[in-house]
Amino acid sequence: MKRMSQNTVNMNASIPPFLSTLFWEYDPGAIDVERHADLIIGRVMERGSWVSMLWLRKTYSEEKLISFLAKRGRRVLPPRELNYWAFMSGVSPDERKIWVRESREKPHVWSARHAH
Questions:
Q1: Per residue in 53-72, pLDDT tens?
Q2: Count of CB atoms within 10 A of residue 56's CB?
Q3: In Å, what is the CA distance from 85 to each residue of 17, 36, 61, 69, 115?
Q4: What digits encode the pLDDT tens for the residues 4-33?
Q5: Domain locations in the chain?
Q6: Cα→Cα distances 112→5, 9, 89, 102, Å
Q7: Residue 101 to residue 79: CA distance in whole angstroms
Q8: With contact defined as beta carbons under 8 Å apart, do 83 and 96 qualify?
Q9: FRET partner for 93 with CA separation of 20 to 30 A, picked from 43, 66, 85, 116?
Q10: Distance (Å, rounded) from C-alpha 11 to C-alpha 59?
């Protein structure tokens, strides 16, 4: 049997109904909390409501959130959200400052688009 930490919920579940609007392009029942953790974490960190953010913190360990931020969040989250979540997850101020600076320096997705 898989051991769960006290701050995690059933990891063999799909997302709760109140999160389904964040995943409009997916079948919410097909999103697995464990297998699709990066997708869920990224969406909630970027666009989630307060209730969604509370759910995220109850569902995933602090270590999982920090791991996401370090590996993927630094590249995909906007600077404001990256800074907030790094702060809430206990990332050091010096490391947060570097991450946010790198996030601000990355080219915006629309910057290479040419008008016709």
A1: 999 999 999 999 999 999 99
A2: 19
A3: 23, 19, 13, 8, 35
A4: 344 445 555 889 999 999 998 998 889 999
A5: 17-105
A6: 44, 42, 33, 19
A7: 8
A8: yes
A9: 43
A10: 8
